[in-house]
Amino acid sequence: MRVAVVGATGMVGEVMLQILAERNFPVTELIPVASEKSVGKEIEFKGKKYTVVGLETAVSMKPDIALFSAGGETSLAWAPKFAEAGTTVIDNSSAWRMHPDKKLIVPEINASELTKDDKIIANPNCSTIQMVLTLAPLHKKYNIKRIIVSTYQSITGTGVKAVQQLENEYSGTKGEMAYKYQIHRNAIPQCDAFEDNGYTKEEMKLVRETQKILSDKTIAVTATAVRVPIVGGHSEAVNVEFSNDFDVNDVRRILHETPGIVVQDNTDTFTYPMPLYAQGKDDVFVGRIRRDESQPNTLNMWIVADNLRKGAATNTIQIAEYLVANGLV
User: Fold this and answer.
1) How far apart are the C-alpha atoms of 8 and 21, rounded to whole Å?
2) Which residue has the higher pLDDT, 232 or 257?
3) Which of 46, 185, 190, 232 is the most exposed place for a label (fewest CB within 10 A)?
């Protein structure tokens, strides 16, 4: 299994390499790929050193799978070239997510849609993954009508530059800014650029991707995405209205039985999810599960996950694992 990691020197790329090793993915040859400025650098994987190559070289090496985390422009330009060479691309950017011919996959929900013909597969946005993984089993049972979500998103979602900005602000050092404002001791109600409707791209990803993954365009979704000065992962306050009534204990049981979800929900012991504890873990954590008493059939939840792992790298590799296990590559 020849595996290319495109964007191997970036923040998500580094986590991908770590998770490939942790999960013993069957890599017989690793092809680390990055931009021209990183070509020739060495990276270590499972005790061996590998030299970073450029995109053109990587395509010519015809990997079986290419895990992309190098931004939308790179994906649009290069994913088709890898696909033409027979490589199956799993792309972590937003480039292909809403393309009508490309599948948007959270393995626990819809991996069964994949076939050998899917040569470019889209990985959803980090904030979408943790929310839909939690909501999918509840949608099956109670039928979701409407979702209101507010996110509290880690600076790691912006990348190394944002982490450096926060560290500089902690220490009082002047440096390059990833955001328009300081992030230390602040909350910025903007993740990504604004669209014409006044919502940010991040907010609209939660709307469009949720409907696509759950295969239901009737689900109404409205979102507010906020950047907060934490490193451990993304948190979400989710209010969901169902067509049918529910029992809260039944909701807890369904979530407890769902692979990939850990329920942390005990107010007596102050047990609830926090990014501090989600960091470095692959599960999605859910708690503060309670009925919305202001209207019928409506539930409140608090959902937390490490955005670099399940929100990006782990989900990508789980897709690759499914392809291998089912002989699709």
Assistant:
1) 14
2) 257
3) 185
- In the CATH hierarchy, which fold is given to the domain comprising 127-307? Dihydrodipicolinate Reductase; domain 2 (3.30.360)
Which are the catalytic amino acids? 126, 234
Q: Which CATH architecture has domain 2-124+312-325?
A: 3-Layer(aba) Sandwich (3.40)
How much is the pLDDT for 80? 98
Enter the tokens of residue 146.
């409407």
246 phi, psi to nearest 5 deg? -140, 165
Q: Which amino acid is at 223?
A: A
> Confidence class of residue 302 from pLDDT cuts 50, 70 and 90?
very high
Contacts 24+ apart (CB under 8 A), 206-212: 206/125, 206/127, 206/128, 206/131, 206/149, 206/151, 208/97, 208/98, 209/97, 209/98, 209/104, 209/124, 209/125, 209/128, 209/132, 210/128, 210/131, 210/132, 210/135, 210/147, 212/97, 212/98, 212/104
The string of DSSP codes covering 140-180 is HHH-EEEEEEEEEE-GGGT-HHHHHHHHHHHHT-----SSS
Residue list for the binding site for NADP(+): 9-12, 37-38, 307
**Angle at which helices 201-213 and 126-142 cross, to 10°:** 40
Q: Cβ–Cβ contacts within 10 Å for residue 29, how many?
A: 12
Indicate the domain borders of the chain.
2-124+312-325, 127-307
Annotated binding site: which residue ranges? 9-12, 37-38, 97, 153, 227, 307
The answer to whether 210 and 219 are in contact (CB under 8 A) is: yes
> In this predicted structure, what is the pLDDT of residue 116?
97
